[in-house]
Design brief:
40 residues; single chain; mainly alpha; Val-tRNA_synth_C_sf; nucleotide-binding; ATP-binding
Length: 40
C-alpha cells in the first residue's frame, strides 16, 4: 500500500476487507468471552 502501486478502487476494496475482518474479530471475541464464562 505504501508503494503507491494500487488504484483508488484497490484501496477502497482493501479498506472494506480490513473493516470486515475487524467486525469478524469483534464477533469472535464476544463469542469467546461468552464461552469463557462457562469455564469459570
Amino acid at each position: 500500500m505504501n508503494a503507491g502501486t494500487g488504484s483508488h478502487e484497490d484501496l477502497a476494496t482493501w479498506a472494506k476487507e480490513i473493516e470486515d475482518i475487524g467486525d469478524q474479530l469483534d464477533e469472535k471475541e464476544l463469542r469467546w468471552l461468552e464461552l469463557s464464562e462457562f469455564a469459570e
